[in-house]
Specification:
The chain is an alpha+beta fold. It contains five helices and four strands; from the N terminus they run αββββαααα. Strands 2-1-3-4 form a four-stranded antiparallel sheet, with no helix packed on it. The longest helix has about 45 residues.
Length: about 240
């Protein structure tokens, strides 16, 4: 009676193949990982596949050894997408404004540094501009004084006609109204020029501090600074008085 004997080489090869398949299976399982999500009731669930109804929700992927390997955020709602778009547009606009401000600041700084050597030069320039406007104001004031004298004369004529029992002549009334209108126009002009002087003083106060900061290296040309410290502004104001 003959017995069949399995060759040792065949047995060894079969065991190796089985072990290889087992390892491969474990590797596939480990690489596939486990997915965890939160269900509609708020409880955490895990499985090898993510249910379709939770595909848009956030979930985690955990390896076979329990290590978190990936986190997927939930899909944004249309409202959230629209808000993100709005915020991005707002940031882009703010960046554009910042670039424009920096360009303007750089141009202004270059004018300061190329035009003036010392702070005294700045003050002389300021005083020169104020003096030009002051001369225009004085000229307008002289005209107002003459017109007021003329107005008093016209009003005296009108009063004389009234005392004589007559109605004030129409042409005289028109002349009085015209002179009054011109006086008001000149007074408005003077008020506007006074406002111009105030703006010049304020701008030169800012320019003087900016010039000082540029010369000292506290700021660089084109650097935009939010505001001047109050104590510095007060000091500059005192120096200009």
């Amino acid at each position: 009676m003959k017995h069949s004997v399995t060759p040792r080489r065949f047995v060894h090869g079969s065991l190796v193949a089985i072990a290889f398949l087992a390892l491969a299976g474990n590797a596939l399982t480990a690489s596939a990982g486990i997915k965890c999500w939160t269900n509609k009731d708020g409880f955490r669930e895990c499985g090898d596949r993510l249910p379709p109804e939770y595909a848009q929700g956030g979930h985690e992927e955990i390896s076979g050894s329990g290590v978190k390997v990936k986190v997927t955020s939930r899909a944004k709602t249309p409202e959230e997408l629209e808000e993100a778009k709005r915020l991005a547009a707002h940031k882009a606009e703010q960046d554009r404004i910042a670039r424009v401000q920096a360009a303007k600041q750089l141009a202004h700084d270059q004018v300061l540094l190329q035009t003036f050597t010392t702070e005294e030069d700045l003050l002389l320039a300021r005083d020169g501009k104020l003096a030009v406007i002051e001369s225009r104001i004085k000229l307008a004031q002289n005209r107002v004084a003459k017109m007021e004298t003329n107005l008093e004369q016209l009003k005296a004529q009108a009063a004389q006609q009234e005392r004589a029992g007559r109605t004030v002549a129409a042409d005289l009334q028109q002349r009085i109204a015209k002179v009054r209108k011109r006086i008001q126009s000149h007074l408005g002009y003077i008020e506007n020029r006074r406002s111009d002087q105030d703006e010049i003083r304020q701008q030169f106060k800012i320019d003087q501090q900016r010039f000082r900061d540029l010369k000292s290296g506290r700021v660089q040309p084109g650097e935009v600074v939010d505001e001047t410290p109050p104590e510095v502004s007060a000091q500059v104001g005192l120096e200009q008085q």
